[in-house]
Specification:
The longest helix is centred in the middle third of the chain and has 18 residues. Helices cover 34% and strands 23% of the residues. It contains 12 helices and 13 strands. It has a 10-stranded antiparallel sheet with strand order 3-4-5-7-6-11-12-10-9-8. A 3-stranded mixed sheet has the order 1-2-13. It starts with a helix and ends with a helix. The chain is of the alpha+beta class.
């Protein structure tokens, strides 16, 4: 049985035998959704009250130190079971799902959330879990456990970005350098740099160079702020890199009617904004969506300059 089927079997077993998972996956069937049409693409809004745990997570050093790590094996609930994979990670069912099939994949060791040195593992996961989209939230980009290295995975077909990548009105092929093709999203609200390749080593090398460019933009950060969405189809990886400029938009910190408790992470960058409060779901507007993305994402023009810089230095 391949890993995607084993993962699906684990999800079904956990929903059956773990009360928290059963309750929240049943609740997922009743979440409210709506969409905003932006012409060539749309952005979905999901009201999902159980995601308040992640959206409102305190990730300052004091709060992290004061709580036990919920991704360490010794702290997992008694009913939570997992699958050991690749010798140093565990596949777990996410008990607070956004996707109808949602996984968390923590490292067996308690190490900081960093993509450096782990991008190869992410590529391997995408190839093994080829029915899922693998995603990475940076420590200041939606990770509610920035002290423990982990990926997440959601079943394919859920995020609008998957379909939009195939739409030339949304995503344009810019160039191919060596074994990697570069794609740009000129008018997609979010600045996204997409890479595709059939060769793992080529993607690792290309990502490493892009990572270094992003470090120059944020020299004071332990890791440049970014989200990553990754799929594997027809022996080819497609990697969406979404550089970030802010963890949370100003609307998150407002009070009263002005507040929108929305903390963008990879799923939001993929086109599904998660609102854990119903009042925010009801009042959020198209203008709010534009404002949130404008604040937290690098702009598309800067992304294009990065591509040209990379191209020039690799001629």
């Amino acid at each position: 049985m391949d890993l995607s089927n084993r993962a699906r079997q684990l999800i079904n077993e956990q929903i059956k035998h773990w009360d928290l998972a059963h309750r929240n996956y049943e609740g997922l069937k009743k979440v409210k959704t709506k969409s905003f049409d932006f012409g060539d693409y749309h952005i979905d809004i999901q009201f999902n009250p159980e995601r308040i745990v992640s959206s409102a997570a305190k990730i300052d050093a004091h709060s992290i130190k004061a709580r036990p790590c919920f991704l360490c094996q010794n702290n997992l609930p008694a009913q939570q079971k997992g699958l050991l994979i690749d010798g140093h990670s565990m596949l777990l069912v996410n008990p607070f799902p956004i996707f109808p099939e949602h996984l968390t994949i923590p490292n067996l060791h308690h190490t900081d959330q960093r993509i450096t040195g782990n991008i190869g593992e992410m590529l391997d996961l995408a190839a093994s879990l080829n029915e899922f989209t693998i995603f990475y939230n940076g420590p200041k980009c939606g990770a509610s456990a920035p002290d423990h290295m982990h990926f997440q995975a959601g079943i394919k077909g859920f995020l609008p970005i998957e379909k939009d990548f195939l739409n030339e009105k949304c995503c344009n092929k810019i160039c191919t350098i060596g074994w990697v093709t570069f794609w740009h999203w000129p008018d997609y609200q979010r600045g996204i740099l997409t890479l595709s390749s059939k060769f793992k080593w080529a993607l690792i090398g290309c990502f490493t160079n892009i990572y270094k460019q992003l470090q120059l933009l944020q020299p004071n950060e332990a890791e440049p702020m970014l989200n990553i969405l990754l799929t594997f189809d027809h022996d080819e990886w497609v990697m969406h890199i979404i550089p970030r400029t802010l963890h949370r938009p100003k609307e998150y910190f407002e009070t009263g009617e002005k507040q929108i408790l929305l903390s963008p992470a990879s799923v939001d960058m993929g086109g599904v904004l998660i609102t854990p409060r119903e009042e925010d779901f009801d009042k959020i507007t198209e203008m709010d969506v534009r404002s949130i993305f404008d604040q937290v994402c690098l702009d598309p023009k800067t992304i294009l300059k990065m591509i040209f810089h990379f191209s020039f230095n690799n001629l």
